Amino acid sequence: MSRFTALHQWLEDHAAQLDAGDPQVSAELLPQLASAGLFRLGVPTEYGGAGGSITEAIEALASVAERSLTAAFVGWGQRTFIEYLLTGRSAGPLREQLLPGLLSGEIAGASGLSNAMKFLSGIEQISLSGRPDAAGWTVDGALPWVTNLRTQDQGFWAAAMVAAPAGSPHPLVAVSPAHTPGLTRTPDLDLVALRGSATAQLRFEQAQVAEHHVLDPDAADYLPRVRPAFLGLQLALPLGLASRSLAEARARLARFDTSVLHGPVADTQAELDALSRQLHSGLAAGKFVKDCAELFRLKVALVETASRAVDLELQATGGLAYLSGRADGLMRRWREQAFLPLITPSVVQLQTQLAQAGQPYGGTPARQAAV
Fold first, then answer.
1. How do strand 200-210 and strand 157-162 relate by DSSP bridges?
2. CATH class of the domain whose range is 2-109
3. Which residues contact 271 (CB under 8 A, 6 or more apart)?
4. In contact, 336 and 194? CB cutoff 8 Å
5. Which residue of 140, 179, 358, 359 lies most exposed, with the fewest beta carbons within 10 A?
């Protein structure tokens, strides 16, 4: 990851400000990620990318999460939006129009398909409804949580799934620019952490979505194809956070050869490495398109592992961690890991889906196989 040395140092220096939502530093985040080439990894060279696979993008995003979950969350939104354009069957003109600005960080892409992913799993209904008109679609509804939404003056593009009227064969997936008539971005949500992630609500009130902004006319076919990248990139967040906490725990324990925590830290690192290998091999083989249950279990296991890693860092730090200003990085990671189970699809939602299907849903896949 030597190519990201400058980015990593910038993140180390500004992680607290990004978490707190400092306006100036937060505005610099997307250009910083883009200038390091983060968004070009796994994008075909014919589209201006660096080539390679999605796993390279995940590894790079995990290295960002080691230093700032706010930055990784924004990076996930941007890189996932890029994947939407690469996957959509009707997205050719949009790829030509938007990809250069997305790769360079001049355009912010917001992943508004959380509702769509929950709909795909039978968790909730589609939040947006549309009806065709002369120019495309008139859309109503709201998306309650969308990240990487710069202000409407700064500009952004957001993806969403729209339910077609009765009698239409399929819901569709479309993108909307910030200046879309009838589209409103609320002020940033009042989060307890990750406040620099530009997370807000999007409201559609007879919003005019142009026909040429449709990524794919058949969401039921499109979403399973893009879900492995949606979740795979998202799993870079617990991977990176867990790696950092375990590294910090080992550094604290280096002075205590007899500490009872050495074993749990080593075991947790081994579990993290095994889960990472399973994620990368599954994505490389394309198995998660059909076997989404294994991908769901991987998310549950990685979030649990990240929580355990932060807890081990806390125990290795001891009472010093509870003194104001003495372990600020750890306290930030504590708040960050509390967010991981809530990111759509949430851990509870995934466990519910797995339980309803009669599938195991707790602990790491390796442990489940041994039961």
1. unpaired
2. mainly alpha
3. 301, 305, 364, 366
4. yes
5. 358
Output the CA torsion 8→12→13→18 (10° steps).
Answer: 100
Dump pLDDT digits (tens) for 123-156: 888 999 999 999 899 999 999 999 999 987 888 9
Specify the domain boundaries for CATH 1.10.540.10 within the chain: 2-109
Helix, strand, coil shares, percent, the chain, to 5: 60, 15, 30
Structure tokens at 157: 């593009």
The structure tokens listed for 349 are 């939602």
Rounded Cα distance, 125 and 119, in Å: 6
User: What is the distance between the alpha carbons of residues 134 and 138, in angstroms, rounded to a whole number?
Assistant: 10
Count other Cβ atoms within 10 Å, centred on residue 135.
11
Measured between alpha carbons, how far is 310 from 273 in angstroms, rounded to an integer?
Answer: 16
Exposure string of 278-289, with b = 16+ CB inside 10 Å and e = fewer, is bbbebbeeeebe
Is residue 66 pLDDT above 70, yes or no? yes
Query: Is residue 75 a contact partner of residue 122, using CB atoms and an 8 Å limit?
Result: no
Distance CA 359, CA 7 (A): 41
Phi-psi region of 182 (alpha: psi -120 to 50; beta: other; left: phi over 0): left
Which helix (DSSP H) or strand (DSSP E) does residue 57 occupy?
Answer: helix 54-65
**CATH of region 111-218:** 2.40.110.10
Integer CA distances (angstroms), 98 to 4, 106, 122, 238, 355, in order: 24, 10, 31, 29, 40
Q: How far apart are CA 228 and CA 354, in angstroms?
A: 17
For the record, the structure tokens of 133 come out as 């008109």
Q: Where in the chain is the domain with CATH 1.20.140.10?
A: 235-370
Per-residue pLDDT reduced to its tens digit, 1-31: 578 999 999 999 999 999 999 999 999 999 9
* Residue written as token pair 């509390």: 338
Alpha-carbon gap, residue 251 to 137, rounded angstroms: 56
